[in-house]
UniProtKB/TrEMBL annotation:
InterPro entries: DinB-like, DinB/YfiT-like. This is DinB superfamily protein. Gene3D superfamilies: dinb family like domain. Residues 30-177 form the DinB-like domain. It comes from the Bacteria. It comes from Chryseobacterium takakiae.
Amino acid sequence: MDIFRCIQFIQTHLKLTFDQVDRWFDKDNKTLNYQPANRGWTVQQILEHIYLTNFYLLILIEKGSKKAMRNYLNLDLNLEIKNYSFNQGKFEKVGEYSAFEWIRPEHMDPKGSLNSDEIRGLIAQQYQQCLHYLDLMKNGEGLLCKTTMTVNELGKINVYEYIYFLSLHAQRHLTQMKNNELQIV
């Protein structure tokens, strides 16, 4: 897939994923606060975790987009575009719940300091930020900066792939929230 189809694909993925995440905020309190049998996170905690993870990923995405735009002055964008092919397959496992062990940093653990309305608003803002970066780098500039992603040994990924990773991370937790809901008696 070329970079322009990749950008469109990521925009669509973001829309579908963030719409699904947003619908969880409309669930009743029983669903939002149900403690699963395995003592895992409640849906409310998962939603806060999605927000926190997005927050930290967006810091890296912002830095990457700025560097990519600076690199545009010194690197051959046309050559990068010509040689790029989006390897969607290498990211697939990121969106699958329990597909591999994922050790997250403690600062991405939910603290319970935000209510549902606050988290919902912040996640909506994060979605808009992602769209902003995709629009800012609509000509392929996001290829001009790569950053190492250690999760599932993804290695060096470009700014677009970081945004896709963010969306896949949220998708991963959609399954977890559905699993919680299915346990409610």
